[in-house]
Amino acid sequence: MARRVLVLSNEDLADANEVPPAILPLLDQAEEIYVVAPTLTTWMHWLTDDRDNALVSADERLLTLFDHMHADGLTPQGQVGAENQVIAIADALAKFDADLIVLRLHAPGSDHENRRERRIAEQVRAQFDVPTIVFYFDSEGQVVEREEA
Question: What global pTM score does this model have?
């Protein structure tokens, strides 16, 4: 049972008003939860070096996640993270000694999958010596696959 869970979420939980049932048991058992919402810039943001909108969006996403978790009786902490998700996780792990990482990603090959999500699970597992569970979601916020290693 993981006591300190780090959750990385690229977006809010598909407009759901709750934490997805597949993830909730992991969080219910945790003593501490730390959420990272990476800054997700578009190509135009990157070209123009305009990160302000992406930072605002990441902050809103983090607050939405907190609202969902609070509604389920959870008390998370967290931060807006770097655009590079591996760096965002490294920064979070410097503050929060997680014993489980949970990645919330779009299903591979789906219309909503973005370039940042490709191979992120493999990179996280290669970089950090922390058990990692990946939940792949469809566009309706339903888990279509769970991957553990």
Answer: 0.87
Identify the pLDDT of residue 65.
87
Summarised one tens digit per residue, pLDDT across range 33-56 is: 999 998 877 666 667 777 788 888
The structure tokens 């309706």 sit at 140
Per-residue pLDDT at 85 exceeds 50: yes
Q: Topology of 4-148 in CATH?
A: Rossmann fold (3.40.50)
Angle, CA 98 vertex, CA 142 and CA 2 arms, to 5°: 65
Q: Which of 9-23, 74-88, 131-145 is the most confident on average? A: 74-88
- Exposed (0-12), middle (13-18) or buried (19+): which is 55, by Cβ within 10 Å? middle
Burial 94-108 (b: 16+ CB within 10 A, else e): eebebebbbbbbbbe
